[in-house]
């Protein structure tokens, strides 16, 4: 479309200003204890995953995938994970802390999304780039959940990084969990937390 102002063509905005940018200024992670039904509709869920997948991708390798756990499956997943954790952990306090954490993470939020990193080691693109690409999916997922009126949070730890959970999720040997994302409707807005002052993070080149 021809531009009609006196600005040089390079200054024409190719995207209209999107009001949702204001929403991104207020995004917060929502703790799993605050995530409840209504679950995202199937349409919303596909939109969230589609937005999440719209990432820069060096080599176009698509080095990620998602595993979805619906609430009717959460009890089974919880008991398999707890059984595996008990087999590894002798300390009673640690067992009980993990049981309580996993119950909060998995039981209540209507959907759990596992984001899986699947590096393509045969491709001639840096593994770090492939990992960062999957990390970008994670952040896009959080923005998409927030923008569509839902909430989520990026969680990791034992259920993501250990061998037994990888088997429970039927991961291939090269695959790793990037994060576990409970997804649902926030029952209340979490309080804001301190944010970095970007002016302190910014310096001019050679200043
Ligand atoms: C890679 C990664 C892993 C995380 N793992 C956990 C976790 O296991 N448990 C937890 O409580 N928070 C974890 N967090 C922190 C929360 O996701 C989140 O950053 C924090 O609650 C602050 O929320 P905000 O998004 O509103 O800044 C993790 C964050 C990142 C980036």
Please provide a written account of the structure:
The protein is an alpha+beta fold. The protein has a single domain (31-186), classed as NADH Oxidase, CATH 3.40.109.10. Helix content is 41%, strand content 14%. The chain contains 8 helices and 5 strands, in the order αβαβααβαβααβα. It has helices at residues 20-24, 42-52, 71-88, 92-106, 127-147, 158-161, 163-168, 198-201, and strands at residues 35-36, 64-70, 111-117, 151-152, 176-186. Strands 1, 2, 3, 4 and 5 form a 5-stranded antiparallel sheet that branches. α2 packs antiparallel against α5 (127-147) and α3 packs antiparallel against α4. The protein is globular. 22% of the residues are buried. The protein binds flavin mononucleotide. Flavin mononucleotide (FMN) is lined by residues 28-29, 153-157, 179, 193. Flavin mononucleotide is lined by residues 28-29, 153-157, 179, 193.
């Amino acid at each position: 479309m021809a531009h009609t102002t006196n600005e040089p063509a390079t200054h024409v905005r190719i995207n209209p200003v999107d009001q949702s940018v204001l929403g991104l200024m207020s995004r917060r992670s929502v703790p799993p204890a605050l995530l409840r039904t209504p679950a995202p509709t199937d349409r919303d869920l596909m939109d969230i995953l589609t937005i999440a997948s719209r990432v820069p991708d060096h080599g176009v390798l698509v080095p990620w995938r998602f595993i979805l756990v619906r609430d009717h499956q959460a009890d089974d997943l919880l008991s398999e994970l707890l059984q595996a954790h008990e087999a590894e952990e002798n300390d009673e306090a640690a067992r009980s802390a993990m049981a309580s954490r996993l119950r909060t993470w998995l039981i209540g939020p209507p959907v759990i999304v596992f984001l899986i990193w699947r590096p393509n080691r045969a491709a001639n693109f840096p593994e770090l780039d492939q990992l960062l690409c999957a990390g970008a999916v994670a952040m896009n997922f959080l923005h998409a959940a927030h923008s569509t009126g839902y909430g989520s949070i990026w969680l990791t730890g034992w259920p993501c990084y250990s061998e037994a959970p990888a088997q429970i999720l039927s991961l291939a040997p090269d695959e790793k969990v990037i994060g576990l994302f409970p997804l649902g409707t926030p029952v209340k807005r979490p309080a804001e937390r301190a944010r970095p002052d970007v002016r302190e993070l910014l310096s001019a080149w050679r200043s």
